[in-house]
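TBC1 domain family member 9B, Dipodomys ordii. Tokens?
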Amino acid sequence: MVAGLLVGTLDVVLDSSARVAPYRILHQTQDSQVYWTVACGSSRKEITKHWEWLETNLLQTLSIFDSEEDITTFVKGKIHGIIAEENKNLQPQGDEDPGKFKEAELKMRKQFGMPEGEKLVNYYSCSYWKGRVPRQGWLYLTVNHLCFYSFLLGKEVSLVVQWVDVIRLEKNATLLFPESIRVDTRDRELFFSMFLNIGETFKLMEQLANLAMRQLLDSEGFLEDKALPRPIRPHRNISALKRDLDARAKNECYRATFRLPQDERLDGHTGCTLWTPFNKLHIPGQMFISNNYICFASKEEDACHLIIPLREVTIVEKADSSSVLPSPLSISTKSKMTFLFANLKDRDFLVQRISDFLQKTPSKQPGNSIGGRKSSVVDLPPESLPAPQEVSELPTSPSSPLGSQPSVSAQEVPTASQGLLKVFQKNSPMEDLGAKGAKEKMKEESWNIHFFEYGRGMCMYRTAKTRELVLKGIPESLRGELWLLFSGAWNEMVTHPGYYAELVEKSTGKYSLATEEIERDLHRSMPEHPAFQNELGIAALRRVLTAYAFRNPTIGYCQAMNIVTSVLLLYGSEEEAFWLLVALCERMLPDYYNTRVVGALVDQGIFEELTRDLLPRLSEKMQDLGVISSISLSWFLTLFLSVMPFESAVVIVDCFFYEGIKVILQVALAVLDANMEQLLGCSDEGEAMTVLGRYLDNVVNKQSISPPIPHLHALLTSGDDPPAQVDIFDLLKVSYEKFSSLRADDIEQMRFKQRLKVIQSLEDTAKRSVVRAIPGDIGFSIEELEDLYMVFKAKHLASQYWGSGRPAAVRRDPSLPYLEQYRIDASQFRDLFASLTPWACGSHLPVLAGRMFRLLDQNKDSLINFKEFVTGMSGMYHGDLTEKLKVLYKLHLPPALSPEEAESALEATHYFTEDSSSEASPLASDLDLFLPWEVQEALSQEEQEGCANEDIQEKRGGTGGIPWSPLVHCNPSQTVGEPSATSTCSSLSEKGTSPPDYRHYLRMWAKEKEAQKETIKDLPKMNQEQFIELCKTLYNMFSEDPAEQELYHAIATVASLLLRIGEILASVLTEAALVTFFEKRVDLGLKLKEQKTVERQFSASSDQEQPGLSV
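Tokens:
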């Protein structure tokens, strides 16, 4: 026994495949002393399965052989053939995973019961800390799960955690857990340590958790990159998925570092040096090669960055090597710049790769020179642009509601082919502006000198000198050009000529929810600026926002986009503003502009964390006042444009396009630091907001040459003691001096940590909103509803990776209320129904589940949402006896009963169109809506002509049924009276009586809205085929019940009573056994617990120690 425990422990720790199986099937003949192993298994169930296969496929054949030797030869050949065929299928082909990795993946699926669709990414040896005892075992990281297995001295530990449930993931080192990884879910904390390479493991876990958060955000499942190039030297134990994720991480870092388009893929990188002519040095760094760009980043962070688009390259040649300049490579561009790289390890291969990419690069692309920026939208001649003094005479457009046309059509309004600031600002000579003009002239000259020394355009050397010039302020004449360069928007605009014009053409005249919101916010976009007080600016803003909404319907339009876009239009053409908006929304501020502003909430969490670390005195006070959550969203979403004077905020935008989000965080920290003493003395949130508002409104730009624009928050500065003015350049200087320790990679790391918290917090909020939206009479407790929601949501998410017919993205519509966002199809509902239904129907269960699905699918889209699901479950669990019987009864009538399940579909659906019985269902009034238009018109005319006739009222269901809706059966032009058996819609007008007061209509509205209690008599009658199906279901439900025989006898009695009284459900109520069966209570909580186990197909107590098997 002890030896067996030791062997089992070593087997897991060493990942040995030599563990002797406890169950084996052996082949031996009478005259032989040799046993041949035919099959082995780790459980009795597994070995029984093998034995059944042998009985079916092998044992019957052995009887035809005469000699024992022939039998042995045949068995050996058969088994060897099966093994050879299996090994052939497992051999890696092309990019398939190596054999050892395949073996680990099969072991993972077998150990944790994972389906074929669950892909293993990598596995690591580590220890799981259970209490204070480390459990050595193996950590398996799959696309959707974290799994751990350990077998130590007879104790077995098995863990499975879904990535979508992780709320915290961090690497830390404490005295108790040395260099460990902590994984938190909502209900437990897990610690893993003793990794061979903890950095690699943690990085992969971060990537997988990020993918899971993306699934929760937009239901995008993981799709393997089929275009990933095959490795030159295949790694022995690295899967294709691991290489895919590594490549994605490198691509994201590459694109973020050099602000490249989202579809750019890194091909490779190598160490080298770059000759920099401005300081005559060879700077060491890394060269990066991709499909369309050659980039360089120095080892020293601010020394030099370089981006060379291949569309600009004219010559790539190998220069002569020397001891000073080994393996040099020269690259020349159309702008007459030459870049000299050296110390390249594999220069010949590199030149070949660049040549291959150059051959695929289009030879001619319009607008390659940024110095002469040109829009694909047709430029207007100068005479067609309005003169500054004529601008005020242009007609203004009121906000157009959905479906209405703007006052000036797109064809009548000139297209903004240059920055609106040039159109609406008087072109005064610099000399007339005095000191400000001289300062602006000096800035322009400084930038011209910089262009001369470092180059101009996309191929410019970007150094610490460039940042220094940006911090001093970009001159207005160069602002649009440099924004395009630093953001990377220029690359996308040049490579997509005519794209914006095409979008404008497609979106013109189209209306949607996004265009309605755009129209509403157009006149709220910098209304104090003259450019947006007339139709030229308003129309340009409308076109840009609408074009982007059509480009990216996932975002569509979000508030604050109008403010940012209006500023972009001041310094660039419409097309340039559009591509700047693309760069802003999709790359520089990811997930900021959507319905849940997730990106802004993530950066708000970073801001709070930085405040705790860098301003500890203020942090606790700000948290108590709740100020950070109030201020940071408006600061971040609008880049301070909505809270600062325009001339000052635009300087922050300059720095933002060069440095990214770190500038916004630095400035926000500097603002809090400057107001620390006043904030510490505040007693409530309103006072703190006033302090910050007055401060920001007095941040001025004394160097601006633009005329001052009144600020919307100027009222905050009114009073006897206005705060002192603060120069924006002084504020920026302080922010860099005090908070320059912020690094881009640190911010990305913090974003990951905050993203887990924010998205899981939003999911919790959504769950609470769903539970609150469920009607109170549904019967389930709050805890049960929350558990049902989590099970339902897990089933929805499982469709992304466990072989559903339609992807989850198709089933989820974020624009719908939370209650209706997650939806499942019939197969997923069948699984949930089988696990949760209180009615056990054996083999008949799939049929009953299909009928219940069709009954709940009210809109016939082959999907049901959570509200429909809970409604169905409530009827089975918390309905009274009559309600449960009605549910069961409806399951055997159309639409629950499909036409294929009955012999006559015509009879089965007869009650939808006509019921000749004397007691028609009052539900027919609702079903009339589905009748042909001519039939509805005839019925309406019939009622108006003789509504007082008792026969018609009885035909509609009598006074006890659901009353006719006057909206359907009354003439809208007539006065509506109170519906009754003897009054008509026109009776009031005929009698000439005065109309009733508003209380009468309120009572009538409440009566119509009140849910009508459906009785047994309201149900349609059942035909013979449907009754037979009902009997089948009842017999299946009663099988294996303790009172099975008594229930069968009761059903027989009910059937005989039916022949006499003709009421199925009424007959059921006469049998005590049937009443007891339907009224017995079922524990939903236990079924929910079992369902969570079934979903992952592994042991219910996954974190519970289990006794090991002795060998």
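DSSP finds 46 helices and 21 strands in the chain.
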